[in-house]
Amino acid sequence: MSFWTESSLEPKRNFRFQIVSDGWAQTDESIWWWAKSIDKPSFEVSSNEYQLINHKFKYPGIVTWKNISITVVDVAQNGPNANESLEGELFKLGYSRPDEGAMKGIEKFSSREKTAAADLQIQHLDSNGDPVDTWTLKGAFITSATYSKLDYSSDDLSEVTLEIAYDYADYE
Is 136's pLDDT higher than 80? Predict the structure, then answer.
């Protein structure tokens, strides 16, 4: 029986989601209302092949979690400014500018503060706004930020696309 003929069943919808974290760099809000899109966690399992006489058998190997991408709208006033927030995130990772003090480079986690991406939650919502699926990214950090192009011929919103790496994801 398909859900098309069953009125009590409801399929998940891609536009019903929210991102929850301990807050963006200069705001205490836990829900990223400025998020436009996000990838769900995905993984790949390697396989190993073993031969016994004239038969080959395949066994699962190591799980590798793939990076996700988040697109957020850059808010100019009374909200999270992406440039300021991302600079704060770099400093939380342990980045220091080459012209300021000893060059430390980037480390995965700094003892200073927790980053906004650490323990980031992706919640898929139902029609009432209640979480149906919750993914928590463990050991997550921002690996790249790409800003939208400035263009006089466009009235699109200014966006930033973030790539997030993580160790693994918990599903609830």
Answer: yes
